[in-house]
C-alpha cells in the first residue's frame, strides 16, 4: 500500500498530463481514458486461463529487470 502511494506521488505530474491530454476537445488520444477499463475487462474475462498458466521464472528477463532497479 505504501509502495502504491509512493508510486502515485512520483507519477503525479505524468498522470496529470495524461488527463489533460485525454480530455482536450481536439485530442487524438481521447480513447485513452477507456483503455484501463478495457484491459481490466479482458483480464477479468481471461482470469481462469491466466490462473492455469504455470508460474515459472524466466531467467533472461533478469537482464531487463535488474538494470531497472539501479
What can you see in these coordinates?
The protein has helices at 2-23, 35-45, 47-52, 62-69. The chain is extended, with a radius of gyration of 17 Å. It contains 4 helices and no strands. The longest helix is centred in the N-terminal third of the chain and has 22 residues, at 2-23. It has 70 residues and is mainly α.
Supply database-style keywords.
single chain, 70 residues, mainly alpha, 67% helix
In short:
Helix content is about 65%, strand content about 0%.
The helicity comes to 55-70%
Structural class by SSE content: mainly alpha
How many DSSP E strands?
A: 0
Shape: extended
Secondary-structure element order, as H and E? HHHH
**Gyration radius from CA atoms, angstroms:** 17 Å
Distance between the termini: 22 Å
Number of helices: 4
Strand content: under 5%
Uncertain stretches of 5 or more adjacent residues? none
How can the largest sheet be summarized?
Answer: none
What is the mean predicted local confidence, pLDDT? Answer: 88
Topology of this protein?
Blueprint: H1 2-23, H2 35-45, H3 47-52, H4 62-69
